[in-house]
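Suppose a classmate hands you a notebook page containing two proteins, each written out with its sequence and a corresponding row of structure tokens. How would you begin to make sense of it? This section walks through that situation. The first entry is reproduced here exactly as it would appear on such a page.
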Amino acid sequence: MVEDAASRSVRERLVASGVAAGLTTVSLAEARIYEALVQSGLFEAGATLVGTHAFIALGDQLGVSWNSSTRTEDIDLGHDPRFLLATPDQNKDLGEQLRKADRGFFAVPAFDRNHPSTRFRIRGKQLSVSILTPTIGKTDDTPVLLPQLKVAAEPVRFLEYLIEDSQLAAVPHGAGLLVRIPHAGRFALHKLVVSQRRPVSSASKSRKVILQAAALIDCLREIRPGDIRLAAAAASKMPRQFLTQLRQGVSVLPQEQTAWIKEAAKLS
């Protein structure tokens, strides 16, 4: 369906009003990547923004402006073929779509040369796009081929919890770009689990994800406490290791948050 000029103009004014009211904008380079991802049918099929770009989008959704130090040039996408909502256009190769956005995009070689790449990057820049998918069964770091997208994805344990109940959100650029982001409560609890799964050598990254979780929990506690309860109900169906690491993550939050989330999420 082709959008008429009048409808687009209305959406452009709405986006401009939102930006004026404090929505977090994206850079031109990021916007071009988002446009390429939208055109590939990725979000329509159920792929979800994860990581810091999702955190920023959640802030816009909740009416919160996070600290600028949360910005990152990495765009991480989670995709689980089991949650396909639609079938992407088979004629649209994701790598080719990204190269249309910026001719400098190339597939970053995997550490194991026998493995396909799961990450794209722009030559001379730090901006990159990584494709992730849940680990199914025994732990295995072999990239998973996603034939619907003509790419491979890095398997990540417990990612299914984060992306299973995703939702649509608009990125404030032009007339708005419709992407998919995680449920706010699941994002917060998943960050607590992730903080406990990182190696000791990644202590600074663990602190960053704890800070993101704490900021989001503070916000949800005030305006949408039900999000945490819904996320906790979904977490109760996850494997024992997930729940153990969730409790460990909760224990390193500020004391007031720890007490509240234990009660809200029924964590002993």
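The notebook's second entry, a different protein, reads as follows.
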Amino acid sequence: MSPRRAGALPLLLRLDPEGKQPLNQQIYQGLRSAILDGRLRVGARLPSSRMLAADLSISRNTVLNAYERLAIEGYLRGQSGGGTRVSTELPDDMLRAQVPFVSQTPKQTRRKISSRARRMVDVPVRLRIPEFPRGLRAFRIGACALDEFPTAVWGKLVRRQISRSGISGLDYGNAPGYPPLRAAVAAYLQSARGVTCDPEQIFIVNGSQQALDLSSRMLLDPENTVWLEDPGYVGAHGAFVSAGARVVPVPVDSEGIQVAKGVRHAPDARVAFVTPSHQFPLGITMTLSRRLELLRWAAKSGAWILEDDYDSELRYANRPLPALQASTHRIP
């Protein structure tokens, strides 16, 4: 079919003068669909707006509006002396993800990524969280009672803060986080968790996994050793392996991580990752004597302790326990 003359093109367009959409929109959609499904091929010449308008018994401006929109969006192109034709490069083709041609084998292709990326790819993902809302149920790992969240109060607070901060709140912020928020977090940690820190030591992240990734990159060199509670958090294991560290599992008993066994298997560990307030996944609270034992080892060996304060404030009775840092003054 060659739409050089208007007689053939109207067969592709089904106009409804009584329809809800204006005629120029109907022409636009009809031509765009014909182009995308191949009924109007790339490079095909369209009739002039005057000829098509006459054949459809409508205003020429209606056809011009449709042609102009298709041209602006890249479906049509005008040529001097050549009329209006379907573009050789359609905008929809640019929006589709093209499968690249790979001449190498998968093993050869993998060599092109960094060694850190290869370690990340090799980390097995064993923890699968059901997607919301199908997975919304009691005792689901890593989620609180989302149906009890005070959305109305939260919405009021957000609107109040937006009205106060104005347009400046939409600009780029401080890299470690919003300064007033960091100051508020530091003040809260001091009163509620016994942590001594300045706002400059607070970094706002989007979750514990980002915190673990940043900490791993700052504290660990490849082949450094890390103590990890056994059983323990698989997300922490993945972050340490991705950083190139050697992870040593240290058993957990009724008092928490068994420091003596950690020293026996890896005395030169650079980092110990623990969940003292609510051990994950066993739920044990680390005793004071075991906390002091861990702190003495870290002080003597120069190691870092990464404390994941998991579920620290979710307690059935009494106040939350102080963080490990609050007990450093007890080390003899």
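A careful reader of the second entry would note: Confidence is low (pLDDT under 50) at residues 1-6.
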